[in-house]
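Support case: user asked for a sample of complex input and structure output to validate their parser. Sending the pair below.
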Amino acid sequence: MSDEAREIVGDYRYGFHNEDKSIIRFDNGLSEQVVRDISAIKNEPKWMTDIRVKAYHHFVEREMPKWGNPGILNDIDFEAITYFLRSTDSTQGDWKDVPEAIQNTFDKVGLRDAENTWLGGITAQYDSEAVYHSIREDLESQGVIFLDMDSGLREHPELIKKYFGTVVPHSDNKFAALNTAVWSGGSFLYIPKGVHVEMPVQAYFRINAENMGQFERTLILADEGSSVHYIEGCTAPTYTSTALHSAVVELIAMEGAKIRYSTIQNWSNNVLNLVTKRAHAMKNSTVEWIDSNIGSGLTMKYPAILLRGEGAHAEVVSVAYAGKNQHQDTGAKVHHLAPNTTSNIVSKSISKDGGRSTYRGLLQVTPKAHNCRSKIVCDALILDKDSRSDTYPTMEIGNSSADLEHEASVSKVSGDQLFYLMSRGFNEQEAMGLIVNGFFEPFTRELPADYAVEMNKLLNIKMEGSIG
Amino acid sequence: MRVMVEEILKISNLHVSVEGIEIIKGLSLTINKGEVHALMGRNGSGKSTLANALMGHPAYSIDSGEITYNGQPLEELEVFERARAGMFLSFQYPSVLPGVKVGTFLKKSIEAVRGEPVKQREFRNQLKAAMQLLDMDRSFLSRYVNDGFSGGEKKRLEILQLVLLQPRLAMLDETDSGLDIDALKIVSKGINQVVPQAGCLVITHYQRLLEHVKADYVHVLIDGKIVKSGGPDLAHKLEEKGYDWLEVKNEV
């Protein structure tokens, strides 16, 4: 690899790409016609086309956010992005029917291994659409619906029509509007009443083409008393030009249901990751966002939970790693809208090699929400003097019975810790790796074992080089 | 039968400073395999400085003098290379490592020191034996290294590492401080198991550890110099008379 390429790729292992063999690729650029074409090519019902067009106009009119990283946001050239790219005729249920190069891609990222050993079902999305999908028969026979979103709309239009955009309306923010206008792919997951899905299901989002915009749309409905663990992973090739990933994820946990949504975000640094994730938690339900942001050049993402029913519980455990040329602007939002609701937020960030991490959090307790409890812990670890960490916690407390705890810390690795570890045989890089793995442990312990191991390996790679 | 003397550590006329202030002012000491050397002295006499300098702490600068370890100049080795070459320091104040589980830490440390992966079964067996010896509960393994540990628990974990790593040179920096008598006995068992294969430098204020770990030599450190060396009796004498009588002599 040339020095120049090394400079771009750095320690990123998933920066490879396949030749673009798309069967349909739109010209770069966005217009109402592009939005209508996407809808037409998918043979969507008129009501969805209308939603898209309305969202498009909102996107055009809506101002860019003035916070996060306005410098990068204002530089986005929406005309230089591809809004739709189809790689295969249809979503396959057998890997043999997926083009070999694409099979190999999902091999390299470890998805097929996981599918064969411990996942209940997977969706593999490649640029705009799912190329492969599987679900265990026992889940299907219990009435679990797990589909890519396009198939979901075709097969269950009544459910989609009822819930689409009810958690994240298109008018929520500029990028939610963009996603609603041009969405393609994503997951639709429905768990019937009382069904507990024991094995996690996973979606994997891979960007392959240059200048790609990936706009998956995910909707998860956990009916009363059901439970599910959904995992998403993502990677992309390293290019010198920008790719845009702008997803919308909507979760609804009905009474007594439990949804855990785990994310391992490892985009290459040329990807801008601008995502809206929100959940509604009904009576006595639990929603957990287990969220990691290791890759991307800029991420702006603040998983939110609206605790709408009495006794509902919110859990957000998030970690961010900001290395060279990275800004992770992440956080969590919890709205206590009902009495006796509880929330627990743990946020950890690491900044290294000039990287920048920002925690932006909102905790709201409305006047009607009596006897709520919330605990927020924010820890930042800064590994060198060129790196930066900022914390912007906001609290809007409208009920004096709320029991709130908030702890925040910013720390550096101490020389004594390094000396102690080195006196036990670890070189400096191994010592840093252990400290960083330990710092993220509250997150990794929530992951399935295989992914926890992968996460630690990933962090160890990030600790290589440039220590001094 | 005569046993061959095997030299492990040789320090000659060592001068060490911290932030420009000289702490060790001309210290010489030789430790052979199987020998226990007790280094005694008041707070601030330079005991811990010696241990940290030997292990290679970057804040301690060696201004002059020579140290050889296994006959090789020590200064050429980085801290982790010293550990891999068999040097071990039981810290007076071991660091807290949040999120790093004791079990994981121990296995990785053994692997780092040995330079090769350790089989899970072999590790489990060694760990079980060592923890039994030190009367430690298995629940230790899933706690984070030194996080929320009592003083005694920290020392016990240090000695557990000592037993598992089987060093060639064991340096124990005030391992006895903060231990009750039962814990002291248990910790001593660990030290005694390592002694026959290692050279051992025991740094302490008090004679009481030496009731359980038999020292072959006792050295008194005052103001960065060894002012007196002797056998185990010297420790008793210090316990009775304190350090003053030596200090006066030192000034003459």
